[in-house]
Amino acid sequence: MSYRFMRMILFFDLPTETSQERREYTRFRKYLLKSGFMMMQESVYCKIALNQTVVNSLYDSLQKNKPGKGLIQVLTVTEKQFSKMEFILGEYNGDIINTDERFVEL
After folding, report:
1. Which of 16, 30, 46, 85 is 20 to 30 A from 9, comparing alpha carbons?
2. Whole-prediction pTM value?
């Protein structure tokens, strides 16, 4: 099995006008955090995956946990493409452990 690290970037815009919609928003956001997604910006989350097989299983899990209304988009890129992201405004936050290495010394 080859390892080609991928990065799933998830964008979502969910309605929060009623209490039921706010509950669904909260449930979906908690699902993302429990599944290992990290917040990049408000309503933009990302997760590193080992290969395309893992990406496909994550996609299936997202399908099962999606809320009833709103917009959810997923973009999958390789780790090399993701590392070429440039910051136009703001800076990289190094507080978050965001690596594919097996051993991280704190």
Report:
1. 16
2. 0.79
